[in-house]
Design a protein that fits this description.
The structure is a single chain. The protein has 137 residues and is an all-beta fold. The chain has two domains: 36 residues, no CATH class; 68 residues, RNA polymerase II/Efflux pump adaptor protein, barrel-sandwich hybrid domain (OB fold (Dihydrolipoamide Acetyltransferase, E2P)). The chain has no helices and twelve strands. It is rod-shaped and about 85 Å long.
């Protein structure tokens, strides 16, 4: 329902559009109802309404302490060196792998404290973007 105020030739009109169906509208002007025929059909808006699910609280989240954290390569390139070995303890920010991409050497850093397991690459390997390099437990 939409409300409008019009001033036509000095006269004030309060107009409410109650319902529109195809080319017919149910309109109320200063309290009096009218059925009005429109020149062309009013198109309904087809934009969907997006709704998000409720955010889970911290207590509802599963414990991630023992979960595996996968380290993937951000860009395609070639492995220059692997700086850690399986079983090594790493802290956040420790360098794990050096790789060459776009003629530059880049370091892959640990994003989680843990123990290195399942190293998938070695020096000289060609790697693709998002390829698994290693896992941290």
């Amino acid at each position: 329902m939409k409300k409008f105020k019009f001033n036509i030739h000095g006269n004030n009109y309060n107009v409410e559009i109650n319902d529109v169906e195809r080319n017919t509208a149910n309109v109320e002007v200063n309290g009096t109802c009218y059925i009005v025929e429109l020149e062309h059909e009013v198109k309904k808006i087809k934009t969907p309404t997006l709704t998000r699910s409720a955010v889970k609280s911290q207590k509802d989240m599963p414990k991630m302490a023992s979960a595996t954290f996968k380290i993937n390569c951000p860009l395609p390139g070639t492995i220059v060196s692997v700086l850690v070995s399986e079983g090594a303890e790493v802290d956040v920010g420790d360098a794990l792998v050096i790789y060459e991409a776009m003629k530059m050497e880049n370091k892959v850093l640990a994003e989680k404290k843990g123990i290195v397991r399942n190293i998938q690459v070695k020096a000289g390997d060609s790697i693709l973007q998002e390829q698994l390099l290693l896992e941290i437990y």
